[in-house]
């Protein structure tokens, strides 16, 4: 009986040291990444609430949070200012106060930000989803079937030259061209951003697959008679997932920024859909007269994109054992040199000694 | 070596053809057309649309259009849809306006990110490192135009830096020196804005690269031999840390063209990015395609030079 607790402890120690748990434990020590996760959790809640409360088709739509309500009597009201008496009862803002002010049509910025949150997130996630599907597919095929030939060229050559060709395009210019030529639609923007950002994923998935496909576990799977599709999907790809996760996280950030840049040039998501990008782009005209129209969406985008970037970097460090090793070993050597034997000759250090 | 040069140049030429075919296909297969720039114009009748399409050969099969574009580009006969001006001349003019912007931005990126990154890596965890890290993240996380507006507000009020165009109006008669200084002064803010994103990204890479290299055995050996710290850092560590950046140089070139679309728009800079934006608005296919083509040529040339430099800098690499 007395052995039981220790055996249990051992068991739990064994389960708690799965790679994912270890990575999570490491991530928890990264304060910036944890702050990022907190911001993203908040954003997720805001997006969910915004989607439920502001979309017209939702059964939970809150009338006081209707982002399309135009109140010309209260246009360009400052944040936290109360609605004027001229606004009819049915059009009063949430709590009777414009939490984030109003824009040039008297629309409640708070409601518009809530409406924009899920749209901005959706653009990021769908674009990254498309980029990942294409990138992983191209990378896995190029890596696993590297020697198979089509029309005298190996699959690897064909797919990788295609990737190289895509890398030669000035991406933003290409996105802008296509988005401008296609009919304005939020889906076109997602698809175009996704189809122009898969190249880095394809390159590192290919490199990983190339090194993985000759390992013993893949040979064993092949010996069991598994088909290539199953080997790639169930045995090879799971081993490439940690860099993919990192790229995806940072990719969402990039997609949100790209959308706001497109909005700035007038090719972003068109009204009546609000995204943080187009609220910001519309607000730039009022930067002096109604700065909240510029600063609120600007800092919201900054906070969210920063959070995605910090979480992505945190994941990179938490998932890569090599980096962890470096982090602990590397700078100590240089530090010791700094602290102890500072045997500098006067010539090498002339300027600083002269200063002293 | 000669073998490698020939084969590599040939590969890049093939790549260039692929890129131009892809660009051509994308531009021509997308639904928007030059005849639809102004769809609400009541004077545009069906026969006008047909005339426009015929004039620009838009009814021909797409491969013929591609061959025509390539032939006209090579012979210099390519005309803009918008105003009938020769495309190469039009782009050339704007390119010379953009070039100083690109050069100064590149110079800023490479001269500022290295000291920052190296310093941050050597003092990992210090206040400098943490604030540099956070600043870098903030810079890559804010929409470029948003940051530019903040900078404009600040710089105009505090320093009085010019934010419109390439030169002050009415300085055509001034001395060459004054004109040059005026140009440079106008370049400050746009070039800085174009460079900031690159500085943030590159300084992070430099830091990571330095951290990796200072953990290597040869650095420990050098320290153990009792070599001077600066000698170890700059002679042993940095030289090896530098290698990957040679490759990055070529890959960062298309980003400059893409970024210039936004920043030239903000600062009313009559450069290639703004020309591209105007061409997109007017659905001026020859100009769009040629700008894309030039960007691809510059990128391919950049990576080619990068490869050569890499082989020159790293004796372990043999070009064959």
Oligomer: heterodimer
Number of helices of chain B: 12
Give the end-to-end Cα distance of chain A, rounded to a whole number of Å. 71 Å
Beta percentage of chain A is: under 5%
Secondary-structure element string of chain B: HHHHHHHHHHHH
Helix content of chain A: 55-70%
Helix-strand string of chain A: HHHEEHEEHHHHHHHHHHH
Helix content of chain B: over 70%
Fold blueprint:
The complex is a heterodimer of chains A (356) and B (320).
Chain A: H1 3-16, H2 19-29, H3 31-54, E1 81-82, E2 97-98, H4 109-144, E3 149-150, E4 153-154, H5 155-168, H6 171-181, H7 186-195, H8 199-212, H9 216-223, H10 228-236, H11 241-264, H12 276-283, H13 292-319, H14 321-339, H15 350-355
Antiparallel strand pairs in A: 1-2, 3-4
Chain B: H1 2-29, H2 46-55, H3 62-75, H4 87-122, H5 127-141, H6 144-158, H7 176-214, H8 217-224, H9 229-251, H10 253-266, H11 272-282, H12 285-313
Helix pairs in contact in B: 1-12, 4-5, 4-7, 5-7, 6-7, 7-9, 8-9, 9-12, 10-11, 11-12
Protein traits:
heterodimer, A: 356 residues, mainly alpha, two-stranded antiparallel sheet, 4 strands, 2% strand, disordered C terminus, B: 320 residues, 0% strand
What does this structure look like?
The complex is a heterodimer of chains A (356) and B (320). Chain A has 356 residues and is mainly alpha-helical. Helix content of chain A is 66%, strand content 2%. Chain A has helices spanning 3-16, 19-29, 31-54, 109-144, 155-168, 171-181, 186-195, 199-212, 216-223, 228-236, 241-264, 276-283, 292-319, 321-339, 350-355; strands spanning 81-82, 97-98, 149-150, 153-154. In chain A, strands 1-2 form a two-stranded antiparallel sheet. In chain A, strands 3-4 form a two-stranded antiparallel sheet. In chain A, α3 packs across α4 and α4 (109-144) packs across α11 (241-264). The termini of chain A are far apart. Chain B is mainly α. Helix content of chain B is 76%, strand content 0%. Chain B contains twelve helices and no strands. Chain B has helices spanning 2-29, 46-55, 62-75, 87-122, 127-141, 144-158, 176-214, 217-224, 229-251, 253-266, 272-282, 285-313. In chain B, α6 crosses α7, α7 (176-214) packs across α9 (229-251) and α11 runs antiparallel to α12 (285-313). The longest helix of chain B is centred in the middle third of the chain and has 39 residues, at 176-214. The radius of gyration of chain B is 24 Å and the shape is globular. The termini of chain B are close together.
